[in-house]
Design brief:
The longest helix is centred in the C-terminal third of the chain and has 34 residues, at 136-169. The protein has five helices and no strands. It has 171 residues and is mainly alpha-helical. The structure holds fe (ii) ion (FE2). Fe (ii) ion binds at residues 28, 58, 61, 119, 145, 149.
């Protein structure tokens, strides 16, 4: 949100594109703080490694968004992403839950995949807006991040189906 406004002003498609980027910028920053906690809470070493790898990618997603702001000649600003705040709160609930470690791992994946799908929606929209606005440079960077979010989602699905869920189901 801008410094002086309490409601957003969407006067142009450019404004909307910028607002979407500010939302993603906030979301990614929240995620860089949440992922180390998710990794520490994971019981499966493969799941721990997946969260750690995605943390490194997420740090790069923050930098890519900063590059996009730069390409647009704008300062990198964030606007509170209420959705990511909520998703992180749900992740925190799993982290602090008591119970069976394998079941908790399945719950961590469930929370993480909600995050990935949210980001996939956000980056898909931002990439498409960039293309419409003729910002191929920005569209390319947003597509790179989108591809990594999608790959992470697939990886989490494979982990869940091949090892985490089977263990959780026998707990
Ligand atoms: Fe990301």
């Amino acid at each position: 949100m801008g410094l002086f406004s309490s409601s957003m002003a969407l006067n142009s498609f450019d404004d909307l594109f910028l607002e979407q980027l500010q939302d993603l910028y906030d979301a990614e920053q929240r995620l860089t703080k949440a992922l180390p906690k998710m990794a520490a809470a994971a019981h499966s070493s493969a799941l721990q490694a997946a969260f750690q790898e995605h943390l490194r990618q997420t740090e790069n997603h923050v930098s890519r968004l900063e590059q996009v702001f730069k390409q647009l000649g704008k300062s990198a600003q964030s606007k509170t992403c209420e959705a990511m705040k909520g998703l992180v709160t749900e992740g925190d609930e799993v982290i602090s839950a008591s119970g069976n470690p394998d079941v908790k791992d399945a719950a961590l994946i469930a929370a993480a995949q909600r995050v990935e799908h949210y980001e996939i929606a956000g980056y898909g929209t931002a990439r498409t807006f960039a293309q419409r606005l003729g910002r191929q440079d920005a569209a390319r960077l947003l597509q790179e991040t989108l591809d990594e979010e999608a790959a992470t989602d697939k990886k989490l699905t494979a982990l869940a189906e091949q090892s985490v869920n089977p263990k959780a189901a026998t707990s």
